[in-house]
Amino acid sequence: MLQGYVVVGLYLLMSFALLGATLLLWWLLRPKKPNPLKLETYECGVQTVGDAWVQFRAQYYIFALIFVLFDVEAVFLFPWAVAYNQLGLYAALEMAFFLFLLLGGLLYAWRKGALEWV
What is the structure's pLDDT at 11? Predict the structure, then answer.
C-alpha cells in the first residue's frame, strides 16, 4: 500500500531536483552586465510626470468582478445547453433554479449601482 506513496514521493523529489538544477544552470549561464538603464521600471510611452500611483475607484474593480462572475457562470450553461435533449425534467428545474440565482445576483448588483459606469 505504501509503494504508491513512495513512487509519488520519488516523482516529487525528482521534479524539485530538476527544477533546482535548471534554475542553478540558468543563474550560472546568464549574462551579468548590470546597467542603470536596465534596472529602471519599463513603461512604454512618454516619461511620467509626477507621481505614477493613481488611485482608481473601487467601482471599476466591482464592475470587472461582476463581469468575470457572469462570464464564468456562462461556461456552466454551455454543457447544459449542448446536452439539453438528453436531460430530464430534474435537470431543467435545476438549471431554472441556477438561472433564477443568476438573475437575483444581477438584480442585486443593479439595485446597488454596481453596474453604473462612472
Answer: 95
